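Thread: Newbie trying to understand structure tokens

Hi all, I'm a second-year student working on a class project, and my supervisor (Dr. K.) asked me to get a predicted structure for one chain before our next meeting. I've only ever worked with sequences, so writing a 3D structure as a token string is new to me. If someone could post the tokens and maybe explain what I'm looking at, I'd be very grateful. Here's the chain:
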Amino acid sequence: MPRYKLFYLHDSHVEKFRESPPKPKPYGLRDRDYEQVGEIDAPSPYAVWKQLQEPSEEQPGGRMLGVGDVLESEESTLLVLNHWGFDEAAWQSTEAVTEAAEPEAALAVPAGAEAR
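---
Reply by user tm_fold:
Sure, no problem. This is what the structure looks like when written as tokens:
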């Protein structure tokens, strides 16, 4: 039976995730926004969701799987739970975020510079 690592989105980010519009796949996720709470055996991601619909102390994290939470398969495939089901995701490194911001900074015109 497949084993999934379970990552819960920090409470402070749940509302933002719920209110955000759908994004292109795979979703870019920041690992610092998540906490790994355990592992669970289930035949599919939807079986994990069903198992975690009634929280108990025996389950990883002790709460229901909710929107924004992530499952990682044994093959390191990430799946994020949305309102409509699971979507592909990937960890977004902080280096990639920094590098993506740098080209914009390089194109910025310094204050006081004249356009030709």
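A couple of things are worth pointing out once you decode it. The first strand starts at residue 3 and ends at 9. Residues 3-106 form one domain. Feel free to ask follow-ups in this thread.
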